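Entry for adenosine-5'-triphosphate complex. Fields follow.
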Amino acid sequence: MGKILEVNNLTKIYCEGSIESKVVDNLSLEVEEGEFAIVMGTSGSGKTSFLHLIAGIDQPDGGKINYLQKGLEDKIDFGHISEKAKTIFRRTNIGIVFQQQCLIPDLTVYENIMLPMMLDRKRKEKNSMKGTVLELCRQFGLIEHTRKYPSQLSGGQQQRAAILRAIVNKPPVLLCDEPTGSLNSAQSDIVMEILESLNQKGQSIILVTHDIKVAIRGSRVIYIEDGHLEGELRFNSDTEKELYKQREVELMSFLQKRGW
Ligand SMILES: Nc1ncnc2c1ncn2[C@@H]1O[C@H](COP(=O)(O)OP(=O)(O)OP(=O)(O)O)[C@@H](O)[C@H]1O
């Protein structure tokens, strides 16, 4: 497996009046294909700002974000391509899940999940798109809810629909910002099981969280402090559930050393 993302000296500065604050400060890191990278750090350390930069939602003030296209030598310098090229690239290569589900209220679950496929330039046959959406809903427990509107679903069901919408175009990278932040622990568990099962099938994931129980489902924890990479922890690749307790102890010790 090769690298899927390279971030070099990434910088983001916000200005309030004459005061400049570097919220992402010369941050460099790499993400491997098939990795489940967890981003942690104290509140205000720059996690969401980092995610928004690599998602192309915000423009960096310095540094490079290279997405390495599967099977191609070419790198796409995501921080320096036009807005139009970025939108097209993002539509097929990056799935995004936020804490608030951001489903379109006037569309059914089925229509919400179908939407990225409809927008995809390489329009597929309508029947095959329908089959893909229904199969995903079947696999992830939403098949009985496809005709409902988001307001008729629980928070956990809405988040499941948001994840399916994010992955329906099979993006090489899935970015998640606190995807379980508004869910109770049972709903959070279901969402994490879905993300884990996607990752086991090869989906690369970068996920921001404060939650230790969520973080131990990943393969690596990237710790951000004051906008820069302060440390990393790699978990044993074995995902047996009995090992989660061990991971939790490891992670607690890693975080405590950083004053978390
Ligand atoms: N649009 C903006 N304008 C000015 N300052 C901003 C903006 N967005 C974020 N910030 C500031 O940047 C810093 C980093 O914010 P960010 O949301 O990235 O942190 P975070 O680590 O995700 O925090 P949390 O864990 O609380 O969500 C904070 O001090 C925040 O106030």
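NOTE: The longest strand covers residues 3-16.
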